[in-house]
Amino acid sequence: MKPFLLIATRAEDKAADDEFDQILRFGRLTASDVRRVRLEQAPMPALDLDDYSGIIVGGSPFTGSEPEETKSPTQVRVEAEIATLLDEVVDRDFPFLGACYGVGTLGRHQGAVIDFTYGEPVGGTTIHVTDAGRDDPLLADMPERFSAFVGHKEAVRSLPDHAVLLAESAACPVQMFRIRENLYGTQFHPELDAEGIATRIRIYRNAGYFEPEEADTLVEAAYQWDVSDANRIIANFTARYARSESPSSLRRAPGSE
């Protein structure tokens, strides 16, 4: 099998390694099935998409809708490199799954309006699958409502007309969308279980997502949520796109042209 490419931007080794491990576990992959690139450490290497089954972009401490003058040189570089990569990814309709920060990168690249209107506090929420989502391969076997973890300062306020809304929630109207047939973004975290979000709460307790003294309460609350359905999205993505053949023969979403 051609490996999946994981694009990561977390500077904290514990957070980065935990994200990698959970993508392996929920994607039913081994370490040899994934090549990880940590963009916060070094520039994007030269990539040939023909070498990969698909791309996964994990979460990030970066907030893309912040004023440009407030961004670090590393964030500016990372955003430019991902945008350049997305030029080819979108043009080829190459399998892509962006979680949280990934929804911002793909959404912004495609003309979505992303701002602070629909930020959500750290914790569990209920996701509602849309009519279009019920017909999508990544959500076809999912219940109409399922639980997932969120925690973000920015979100998509409106999608471009060519995007397909796949899932929503009461607090955030764009929780998952698709571009073309093979490009996905989720605002929620399909790669996180309770232990995973507990690790991030502890690591990012001073990052402005919540008051530091709330950390223990948030960790305790996280263990009350069953997010196993959300975790299945990672497996659905890797099972659908894992391949050894040429990327020119990608499977299409039902009813798509």
Automatic annotation (TrEMBL):
Provenance organism: Flaviflexus salsibiostraticola
Assigned keywords, A-Z: Glutamine amidotransferase, Transferase
Name of the molecule in the record: Glutamine amidotransferase
Domain of life of the source: Bacteria
Presence of keyword Cell membrane: no
GO molecular function terms listed in the Swiss-Prot or TrEMBL record: transferase activity
Glutamine amidotransferase domain sequence ranges: 48-193
Transmembrane intervals: none
Gene Ontology CC annotations of this record: cytosol
